[in-house]
Write a structure and sequence with these properties.
It contains seven helices and eight strands. It is α+β, with helices and mostly antiparallel strands and 226 residues long. The chain has a six-stranded antiparallel sheet with strand order 3-4-2-1-5-6. Strands 7-8 form a two-stranded antiparallel sheet. A hairpin with a 2-residue loop joins strand 3 and strand 4. The longest helix is centred in the C-terminal third of the chain and has 23 residues.
Length: 226
Amino acid sequence: MSSEQLPLVDVAEDLSEATVEFESVQGRPSGAPTFIVRIVGADADAIEATFADADSVTDHSLVVADRATRRYRCRPTGDPPTDLELLADNGSIPDRVLATPSGWEERRWFADREEFDQFRTFCRSNDYGFQLDRLVETDEGSDGRVTSPFGNGDRSWPREMTDAQQEALVIAHEMGYFDTPRTATMADVANELGVASASLSERLRRAQNHLVAEFRRVSGIKPPTN
């Protein structure tokens, strides 16, 4: 979504070497929502100066500083977008949103093509330039749901490993894909499962993410902090 009117675009422009990422959007009973923003790759003084000069957001405050990462709370300025009800009724979930000098880069989950078209209509209604990088159909099911960090109602993306992911993981292990050295390639496993290599790669990545997340939950291991 390309537009200089989007919140935090001016912040990202001034902090061009840093990563400016939304962590959550918290709705309020009245007025503008509150953004929690993660900034990596800029020093504290530069960030403070940038927020002080920014026109797109106000009321910034430091939430927590952890090594090279700093999290801030702020609110957007100006009038809300037009046709906001289109976005309110949309069931899509932002998975990752980055503010860049030209706009926002988003990765979203859509339940169906209708929701995608609705979101695109909202962007065009506000004169946001909209460029689609890719649209991928996943094999995720509807069981094991976890609420989005962006708090989009009761919508969520699947949390548990799907049957297809479990099958891919087991077959890849049995064929020696994880051996050192490997005795089977990605293409070998994909042929065995009757899927494209790209689809298999995505399934294995998601399956391994689930395993690591479960291991961390059980073991209690947490990322290092100051």
